[in-house]
Amino acid sequence: MQELPGIVITGASGRMGQMLIKTVSDSDKVRLVGAVEREGHDWVGRDVGEAMGGAALGVTVTDQPLEAFAKAQAVIDFTAPAATIAFAKLAAQARAVHVIGTTGMTDQDIAQLEPCGRHAVIVRAGNMSLGVNLLTKLTQQVAAALDEDFDIEIIEAHHRHKVDAPSGTALMLGEAAAEGRGVDLKDVTDSGRDGITGARKRGDIGFTAIRGGDIIGEHDVMFACDGEQIILRHKATDRSLFAKGALKAAIWGQGQKPGEYDMFDVLGL
């Protein structure tokens, strides 16, 4: 019988890292074969299950990512842009599928992934949730159907520890709205309002970011004109949905040709 695909989780000690480790460990479709942390982290050298406060999983946390990737068929990565770029190069060397859920990546960061996609499968998305990806498609369709009499505002809320704003998902929704209208998001973004800003410019796409408590993730796309509003909403109540989506992407990537993909490809949307 063919062996199940081996998965490595980067940023093992983080909130998403631990959720990914649990999701992979509980799955009967893949194997956890590696857990990576930065050099000097106190988890390095420990069994990752015990480091998480549970039973041993038989996987030792390492600070040598290439060694871990070489044993795996896929890497799931929810870390930081600089780390993700470094991991992409190593995953390409190992010919491992690289699933990227990292947010806050700039256009320059994303451009650095392109050479890696010539050698390995990269699946990158601002959000791995099925519901959010459906919301993104709906946002594009509604934006295409309505003219600029409708202002578009994207309102997102996350926990107090999130370091980037707007969220990767909010930007993904903004790109979808801009694509629906046939414009470049950079040319119509309206964010960071403070003080006397003047009236809103017709055709702009606005962003509002809320940070507080332990909010997992909430996104509204509001289309507002004189007399009516249309609001599309997604609310995440369990962080595991992102891990499950990432795992689905890692499994889907097996056997695909090298290249850059997104969750629309994975979900067939």
Automatic annotation (TrEMBL):
<keyword id="KW-0560">Oxidoreductase</keyword>
<dbReference type="InterPro" id="IPR000846">
    <property type="entry name" value="DapB_N"/>
</dbReference>
<keyword id="KW-0220">Diaminopimelate biosynthesis</keyword>
<comment type="pathway">
    <text>Amino-acid biosynthesis; L-lysine biosynthesis via DAP pathway; (S)-tetrahydrodipicolinate from L-aspartate: step 4/4.</text>
</comment>
<feature type="active site" description="Proton donor/acceptor">
    <location>
        <position position="158"/>
    </location>
</feature>
<feature type="binding site">
    <location>
        <begin position="168"/>
        <end position="169"/>
    </location>
    <ligand>
        <name>(S)-2,3,4,5-tetrahydrodipicolinate</name>
    </ligand>
</feature>
<feature type="binding site">
    <location>
        <begin position="11"/>
        <end position="16"/>
    </location>
    <ligand>
        <name>NAD(+)</name>
    </ligand>
</feature>
<comment type="subunit">
    <text>Homotetramer.</text>
</comment>
<comment type="function">
    <text>Catalyzes the conversion of 4-hydroxy-tetrahydrodipicolinate (HTPA) to tetrahydrodipicolinate.</text>
</comment>
<keyword id="KW-0520">NAD</keyword>
<keyword id="KW-0521">NADP</keyword>
<dbReference type="InterPro" id="IPR036291">
    <property type="entry name" value="NAD(P)-bd_dom_sf"/>
</dbReference>
<keyword id="KW-0963">Cytoplasm</keyword>
<dbReference type="Pfam" id="PF01113">
    <property type="entry name" value="DapB_N"/>
</dbReference>
<feature type="binding site">
    <location>
        <position position="159"/>
    </location>
    <ligand>
        <name>(S)-2,3,4,5-tetrahydrodipicolinate</name>
    </ligand>
</feature>
<keyword id="KW-0457">Lysine biosynthesis</keyword>
<feature type="domain" description="Dihydrodipicolinate reductase C-terminal">
    <location>
        <begin position="131"/>
        <end position="267"/>
    </location>
</feature>
<feature type="binding site">
    <location>
        <begin position="101"/>
        <end position="103"/>
    </location>
    <ligand>
        <name>NAD(+)</name>
    </ligand>
</feature>
<feature type="domain" description="Dihydrodipicolinate reductase N-terminal">
    <location>
        <begin position="7"/>
        <end position="128"/>
    </location>
</feature>
<keyword id="KW-0028">Amino-acid biosynthesis</keyword>
<feature type="binding site">
    <location>
        <begin position="125"/>
        <end position="128"/>
    </location>
    <ligand>
        <name>NAD(+)</name>
    </ligand>
</feature>
<dbReference type="InterPro" id="IPR022664">
    <property type="entry name" value="DapB_N_CS"/>
</dbReference>
<comment type="similarity">
    <text>Belongs to the DapB family.</text>
</comment>
<protein>
    <recommendedName>
        <fullName>4-hydroxy-tetrahydrodipicolinate reductase</fullName>
        <ecNumber>1.17.1.8</ecNumber>
    </recommendedName>
</protein>
<feature type="active site" description="Proton donor">
    <location>
        <position position="162"/>
    </location>
</feature>
<dbReference type="Pfam" id="PF05173">
    <property type="entry name" value="DapB_C"/>
</dbReference>
<dbReference type="InterPro" id="IPR022663">
    <property type="entry name" value="DapB_C"/>
</dbReference>
<feature type="binding site">
    <location>
        <position position="37"/>
    </location>
    <ligand>
        <name>NAD(+)</name>
    </ligand>
</feature>
<feature type="binding site">
    <location>
        <position position="38"/>
    </location>
    <ligand>
        <name>NADP(+)</name>
    </ligand>
</feature>
<dbReference type="InterPro" id="IPR023940">
    <property type="entry name" value="DHDPR_bac"/>
</dbReference>
